[in-house]
Structures are given as C-alpha cells and as structure tokens.
Amino acid sequence: MTPNLREKCGVVGIFIPNENVSRLTFLSLYALQHRGQECAGIATFNKNKISVHASMGLVNQVFNQGILDQLKGNFSIGHTRYSTTGSSSSINAQPLLFDCELGSIAVSHNGNIVNADILRYDLEKQGVQFITSSDTEVLAQLICVAPGKNWQEKIKYMMQKVEGAYSLAVLVKDKIYAVRDPFGIRPLSLGKINDGWIFASETCAFDHLGAEYVRDIEAGEILEISNSGNFSLQAIKSKQQAFCLLEYIYFARPDSKFNNNLIHPVRQQMGKLLAREYPVDADMVIGVPDSAIAAALGYSQESNIPYGEALMKNRYVGRTFIQPNQSLRERNVQLKFNPMSEIIKGKRIILVDDSIVRGTTTPRVINMLRSAGATEVHMRITSPPIVNPCFYGVDMANKAELIANHKSIQEIEKHIGADSLGYLSIENTILATKTEKNTLCDACFTGNYPTSVPLQFDKMQMESATSDRHELNF
Q: Is 6 left (phi over 0), alpha (psi -120 to 50) or beta?
C-alpha cells in the first residue's frame, strides 16, 4: 500500500550489435513502471546522432509503434520517473540531452544529489545556463564542463564532486555507461542479452527480455559498454556501502534480485520474523496488496493462522500517491481496495503492511475491514517506524509529517484504530535481507545517514559554501 512513499526512478541501458534496441528498451521500462509513473523516455544513438523521445505519462502512453520506429540504433538508454528533485513537468522528463565539448550526451538518473543546489549555484557562476530544475541536469552539466580527455575521465570528475545517490545510464557516441555512486545507495545490475548487454535498476527488466543476470554494478564503478567490449573503472573506492533498505521492504518488484537475493523470500522472512516478535490470536492473515503479500504469507506460515485474500485491489487504479492532493489520495483508497465481507465478517484479522508513513491511509483501510464485519484488526508492519526523511531519492514526507516522528507506537495504534500494532525491529528487518548492517542505508529508521544531508542555503551561505568546499576547477 504505502501511498506516501513516492517511488524513485528506473533506468536502463542496452547495447546489442547490429540490432535496433528501442523496443527492448521500451519493454524494460514497462517492467520498471512501478518505480515511477510521471514520465518516461528513451534515447538512442544512430548515424552520429542521439535521438530522444521523453514526455509525461506512463510508458505505454508515451510510446507507440511509430515513435519506436523512429528511435533507431543499437545503443539505447531509458528512464521512468517520479520527481524527487525537480518539478513534475515534461521539461524534466529524462533522458536529458546536452551538447558538450566531446559531443552529445544523454543521461538518465535514479537517485538524488544532496549538494545539487551548491553545485548548481557554482556552475551558474561559471556561466552554465540551466534549462531544467532537476538535479540530473546538474550531473550532466558537470560532466560536460569537467576536465578530461575522454568521457570516463569527465564522469570520474563529476563523481568526485557530487554527494548523494545516483545510478546513471549515460549514452554518448557508440558507447553507454553504467555509473553508480560510491555508497551504492540505488540499485543497478548488469545482464547479458544475445550478443550484447543490458543494465537496469532491477533484474525483473532482464527476465522479460530473456537476459541473464551477471552481477551488480559496483559502488563507485563506471562501466563502459561499446563495440570494443566492456571496460570497468573503479572511479571512487567505496569506503562504506549503504544500499537502500526500503528496496527490500517495499520498492522492488518481488521477482527482482539484489546482491543475488530474490526479493520475494526476503519479504516472506520479514513476515515470519514479525510473527515471532508480535504474535496474536486471530482467525485470518491479510496482506495489503501488493508489496505486503509475501510478508503476510510468511506471517501465516510462522503463526499457523490461515492466509486469506480478502482485500482485493483494483489494478487499474494508479498508486495513490500520484494524486495531486491528500483529499484525492484518500478518496482513491476506496477505489483501490475492496474488502470482501463474506470472507471477513465475524473474523479477527491480522493486517500486514510494509510501512506507515503519515498515518492517513491506514485508518481508512482498517475502517473498511471493520465495516466489512471484522471483529478485530491487528496491524503488523514489516519495517521499523519511519522517523526520518530520505534525501536519496524517496520523496516520502518531511520530518513533521512522519507520524512515528512525533507519536509513540501506542499513540499510532490509537490513531489508526487498530486493536494492536507491531513493527518489525530494525535487527530483524536487516536479518531478513541476509546482508550486513554496515552495507545498508537505514537512515529513515535510525537517522544514520551515510552522507551529509542538505541544508537550506541563502545566497550569502552559497557564496561561502562554494568558495570553501565546492569550488569547481575547470
């Protein structure tokens, strides 16, 4: 459910010798649609020219047969977007295309740059004129003006200047680059397809094309893919990895893999551990579609309480967070979910979900279950309380809007109208991922950010910040 966790973005890059790859890029973006529903775009290289088509809308609304026929070339990158830094506007639709000293460059970006305002201000002082409001343009413009005799050197320079999260797909003449920040905050994986290569935000994009997962792009790596083969440069040595824990909990499709771990069993294990931490006597376990279904199954298996599909989802209603105001978001919940009273009536229900953000949607769902005849509703959450905002590409809410930041668990329980409420501990959340704590970013739960976090700068502070710490040497 989690309508207040605004998703990040999805990126993809494909190279197959002697084959037009725009349709494959389209299918990959279709598989990554859950990562962003505002904009979509594809860029291809053919006959010394990069062509881009990008606009607001879902993937199948932005592209048709005629448009894909015009996007020729065996090098391609794509993007599906939910705005993080930058307004919701077609001008911010990616890939973004720029003319640089070395030639044209197109860039797709998943993540968020925490020092983008400082870098933008400094670039403007150097005479760079911006055409969008997105931090992706800051990255692209920085690459363009960076010193270096080739694209790898320019990208490496950019990586040394920016702070925050970025997984990039970069298209230039006869080459594509996969680039990942030194913390590896956002996902990016490499696959083999026919005689070529694909990289994407999630491996589910590989499966639809028959591509084979090879490995994850390393934190701090620049991978160049061309007709001459692949060349990897460890541009920045990773001192600490900080992969987003929310990818495991909520964002990724359950058929994707991170660190070679399939997401579905990870979420099942979260549900099992939640049942051990917060058992309760009940008649049925229900998962909120779709991201909490695997966890609900795990809770059912561990508790020996039957699982029931009693909360149906209308799959033709978009994710509720894309509605323009909170009133419409809340009304959309009633369109999105329909409880089956014949199954629920007279039963004590355990309702499993992945998170509670603002605490505005969960009470409506619980009230729907009670109206359908549930005698008790026990809420179980497969993550710890979210008490801090994310600065790395998840536009969830500000600190004041996060209900767990200013209410106790008992107060949240009363607010949402549940008979009981239990959150999975941070220790067990991490345990379910089969990864080490020091390789994950859990800042939204703990406040332990892997980088500095953005501040609000006025012009005088900008002057000081750029001269003291972030002056760009061209």
A: beta
Q: CATH code for 264-435?
A: 3.40.50.2020
Are 177 and 224 in contact, with CB atoms under 8 Å apart?
yes
Check 9, 244, 441, 444 and give the catalytic one.
Answer: 9
For residues 54 and 94, is the Cβ–Cβ distance under 8 A? Answer: yes
In the chain the first and final C-alpha atoms are separated, in Å, by: 47
Q: Is the peptide bond before 385 cis (omega within 30 degrees of 0)?
A: no
9 is catalytic: yes
Instruction: Write the CA distances from 284 to 35, 158, 268, integer angstroms.
Output: 31, 53, 17
Q: How far is CA 413 from the centre of its chain?
A: 28
**Runs of H (alpha helix) within 15-115:** 22-31, 59-62, 65-70
Alpha helical stretches, state H, 133-234: 135-145, 151-161, 204-207
Beta strand 229-234 with 243-244 is unpaired
Domain 10-242 architecture: 4-Layer Sandwich (3.60)
**How far, in Å, CA of 385 to CA of 373, rounded?**
28
Could you count the other beta carbons within 10 Å of the beta carbon of residue 281? 10
> Is beta strand 420-423 parallel, antiparallel or unpaired with respect to 440-441?
unpaired
Question: In what side-by-side order are the strands of the sheet with 420-423?
Answer: 284-287, 348-353, 376-381, 420-423
34 versus 455: which is more confidently predicted?
Answer: 34
- Domain extent listing, the chain: 10-242, 264-435
* Residue range 289-318, pLDDT digits in tens: 888 999 999 999 999 999 999 998 876 655
Residue 81: per-residue pLDDT: 83
